[in-house]
Amino acid sequence: MTSATDTAGHAAAATDPHASIYDHGFVRVAAVTLPVALADPAANAERHLEVLRDLHDQQVGIAVFPELSLTGYSLDDLVLQEPLLDAAEQAVLTVLEASEELMPIIVLGAPLRAKDRSRVFNCGVVIHRGQILGIAPKQNLPTYREFYERRWFAPGDDAAGEEVILGGQFAQLTPHGIIQVEDVPGLSLFVEVCEDMWVPVPPSAEAALAGTTVIANLSGSPITIGRAEDRKLMARSASARGQAAYIYAAAGEGESTTDLAWDGQTFVYECGDLLGESERFPTGVRSTIVDVDLDRIVAERRRQNTFDDNRRTHAASLEKFDGWEETTLFGPWDVPDCWDDADEDDEEAPEPILLGGRRRAAQARHDARSAATGAELPALRTPPATGPLRRHHDRFPFVPDDPARLAQDCYEAYNIQVAGLVRRLKQIGGDKPGGTRPVIGVSGGLDSTHALIVCARAMDLLGRDRSEILAFTMPGFATTEHTRSNAELLSTAIGASFETIDIRPASTQMLKDMGHPFGEGEPVYDVTFENVQAGMRYDYLFRLANHHGGIVVGTGDLSELALGWCTYGVGDHMSHYGVNAGVPKTLIQHLIRWVISEGIFDAATAEVLRAVLDTEISPELIPTAPGQKAQSTEDSIGPYALHDFALYHLLRRGYGPGKIAYLAHQAWGDAEAGEWPAGYAEDDRRAYTREEIKHWLTVFTRRFFNNQFKRSALPNAPKVLAGGSLSPRGDWRMPSDAASTAWLAEIERDVPGD
Fold it and tell me: Has UniProt tagged this entry with the keyword Kinase (predicted)?
């Protein structure tokens, strides 16, 4: 049976490729704490079902409850009483029967008797659609300080294959059971109970090596001062080392306070990042409901080869995980539920619609399974519409929204750049006055401004006078007085030596010698016209470095390298050392703001830096007629906000354009939703339509592939961000002649444009 909500949700998901998180590598999970009726399993079963019906309506895929959630944890010797154990068994069966109508995979806690009735196990029971998928007994039973669990329970570490009584029948314990969800690629679930995460080698560590991606922990865990942070430390560490998601739910309201207290803490971590947490010491039900990125987990493991090396090291110990239970979150049914209301006489009932690579992959596995078994399995059901992602997603993935985190990142980025330049100068005789000098071209724009203040700080640390920095501005045919003035004012303010070299005569001569129309006075402003100016500037800089015993400090940034927005060879592509090559365009403005706020330079310098921040990004290579808009980089190649968004998710996460577009739509679809980084101007806050996202993602993809040859010949530069670098010796390997066909085909096929 399907509710009206289900039908509408599945119909929406069938028509809109952005309607369901499940089409984009996510699973919605809930860590739940709820008031427990101590020693009253029947009442607790009903409370579970009330919560689960609500979670079903919110399209939650996994719901995790606290340890012994059907009875309460703080029972002491009552847990050995037959009436309590009978009632607990019946409560499991009550939830089991009701689960046939519920979407979530349910993970709840109950004490269950062994087949011989002489032992009791503290179990995490996994239920879905009327089936028991696994029963995970607690493996490590604490008997220290306030804990006495060995008084009541048998340890479950060696209980694989043992049976417990459930509904007059017997069910096997699965301490090493992993549950794979066929129609949610990348989702496999493992359950451990409370103390299991506190031991030196937790069961979940081995389970992660064996392939599980999502770990659930049902916890009792009475609260004392500091324990909440300890729990988070353990879970964060487990999720980071295991490259997994960790769902944690602790007991709370209703537990006995005879000798202990309870705070009902819930949270979810993913690869070491906190996705969400709920209020502690709550009255009533509290849930942490977030969307876990399964693609991220799989990609991190694929990329981190030592993860698999560790699996091979422990291969013998992992053999116990070889039996995986399988289920499907959305079916299968004969046809998708969105067609349940079709006229019975209608012979034209629509076929299931599969959108996106994940559904195609899931269907392929499903078909292969059908062929292998010789049975015609029903079609997979279309995932329901889920609404927006329930997780924090940065508009600027290289720029944290949290002001404290942003300040810390800026501190580290700036000092990485400075330390890199200091080390290079020391190596080539620049560690003493009169030694090798930094030579830099300053335009008054963001990149050269930031590179200059990196040079200034490096000279301070080397004990050299800033006047030994040789700063040159080289106006061309479109240089404005505003930017030229900013370049001079900044160079003078920080104490660098400053000169102006007009490149127009030399550029005109070169264009004339080449037979270019501009050399004869015609206003032809093509790529040759632009690159002659860009190349001329760096030709001068390299020869000036030779002349003065210096090195050219590169100013080009990570975003420009990704897009190939630089003149190859003797142009802004090249330098002796590139300080900005690891920093994306969207971060540089925040670095400059941080330098101002930290008071690293005096007030006069800070004033010029603010003026630079207010200047539109432009190469200033094409002259502008009166009344015309000046040349704008973003008008030419698109918004750096979207390009940096795509770069991060391609470079750091390994995502394809279909998922990048979905995430961009979530992050950039509404300017009023979500957070913006500190200091980001109100006037610059805008949204992008799906059409704009698709267009600029296509531009990014083409440019990224077509310009790899420039990145293959990069000068030295330090990696700055965990998000990655594009150095051919560092973070990125790619052939220069690779085709972008598959990526562009995915954009055309899977990315909506309206």
Answer: no
